[in-house]
Amino acid sequence: MSLAHSHSRAQLGVHAPAVSVEVHLANGLPALSLVGLPETAVRESKDRVRSALQSCGFEFPQKRITINLAPADLPKDGGRFDLAIALGLLAASGQIPAQCLDNYECIGELALSGELRPVRGVLPAALAARDAGRALLVPSANAAEAALARGLTIIAAEHLLALTAHLSGAQPLEPYSGKTLEPSPQAHLELADVQGQQQAKRALIIAASGRHNLLFSGPPGTGKTLLASRLPALLPPLSEQQALEVAALHSLNSSASLSHWPSRPFRQPHHTASAAALVGGGSSPQPGEISLAHHGVLFLDELPEFDRKVLEVLREPLESGAIEIARAREKVRYPARFQLIAAMNPCPCGYHGDPSGQCRCSPEQIQRYKLKLSGPLLDRIDLHLNVPREPHSPLATTPGTPSSAEASAQIAAAWQRQLARQGKANAELSLQELQQHCALHEEDRAWFEAACQRLNLSLRASHRCLKVARTLADLAAAEQIQRAMLAEALQYRLSHE
């Protein structure tokens, strides 16, 4: 047969659109033409495929070969199409049965020896192949990741020869039945390890209960980073769908790994990170730190040390829970529903307001330092808290501090109340949902509005105070928001002033 088809998947954000690999052999001078908007790595696949087929003892057709990657307007990048191209060539030249490829999708890069090498982004392709009702041919190194897509038939192999023997029926391979990615053991980070800072721990529990953004401000060594590192262990476990979304995003990124699956991600980029590193980008757009923190925590230490232009790009995803990266040839949308935890010093030297009296910063220096953070960005942070130095000895224990297990139980109970009432976290409530689920008594509403006017809070800030008050009510198992809860929520807006 001079025409054959095989099936593969491209990578477009978190989606894996179908790609049909059409191979046609015609009489004429030997030549190979690869069409269908291939990028450089795809155009180079013809040389890898030729060497791989010859190394495996197959005949490379000495004809005029046209390979079309359809649809033609979809950019194709990477070595993920090597396997589909090689099998299409073998089917078109009659070296394997052409009809054997109808029920398979192929993802994998070929070495010159015919060995199958792993590629990025296999999990989104596996989920799409399962929904399309086809089995998936992948390198063995990608099999455990692909197996996260439950219900998918996976044929994994180390070498091209093993797959061709399977497809021709000479030596069928058993569907992959090995283990999927095992949940990784998590380090036990105990909340009680943080000495003192009862108010900061209270704010951390509130933030975890309603998925609120939180800013710690205080001198060095007061436990800001230590507190932030305890947050992921306090959050409720991911659902299966959420865990798959997180794993799919990490599968797309060459620098990320799935070693912490299925726990919530905790990303801590350095303050020298660029805007592209934080939100994603590049000539071939990749997810950034905010997307890799999807359904998890993004911790920004030394917040004012980040470039202001870098921080400003956080404003849209903090509101929408997604980031759209536009390039001349494509537009990619990545989910980015993360919880922002930030830490900063009160001044350039870090000791403004500290009882030690070490600060030597002028009022102008302190003002310039604080102005590195814009008002709109601070508006999007629900809880602002000063973390002062406390006079504890190095080995002192803090009585009355809840353990991580006790705090997690409180948070889980509050989380269940939110899911039963509105199906989402309080921090994600829209304005209409806010009016529905955060109704106040007339006297409390008048008091709250007057307090917001006196404090000169924006509408966004007042709405976020109301969401925090709703979380305080959920922690107290109260149906109605009380005035004391409104007062506490407003207190967390004053702490940064």
TrEMBL record:
Superkingdom of source: Bacteria
Molecular function GO terms recorded: ATP binding; DNA binding
SUPFAM superfamilies linked to this entry: P-loop containing nucleoside triphosphate hydrolases (SSF52540), Ribosomal protein S5 domain 2-like (SSF54211)
Pfam family name, one: Mg_chelatase
Gene3D superfamilies per the UniProt record, alphabetical: 3.30.230.10, P-loop containing nucleotide triphosphate hydrolases
Keywords tagged on the record: ATP-binding, Nucleotide-binding
InterPro entries found in the cross-reference section: AAA+_ATPase, CHLI-like, MCM_dom, Mg_chelat-rel, Mg_chelat-rel_C, Mg_chelatse_chII-like_cat_dom, P-loop_NTPase, Ribosomal_Su5_D2-typ_SF
Start and end residues of each MCM C-terminal AAA(+) ATPase domain: 286-383
Keyword ATP-binding in record: yes
NCBIfam families found in the cross-reference section: PRK09862.1, YifB family Mg chelatase-like AAA ATPase
Family: Belongs to the Mg-chelatase subunits D/I family. ComM subfamily.
Listed PANTHER family: COMPETENCE PROTEIN COMM (PTHR32039:SF7), MAGNESIUM-CHELATASE SUBUNIT CHLI (PTHR32039)
Name of this chain's protein: Magnesium chelatase family protein
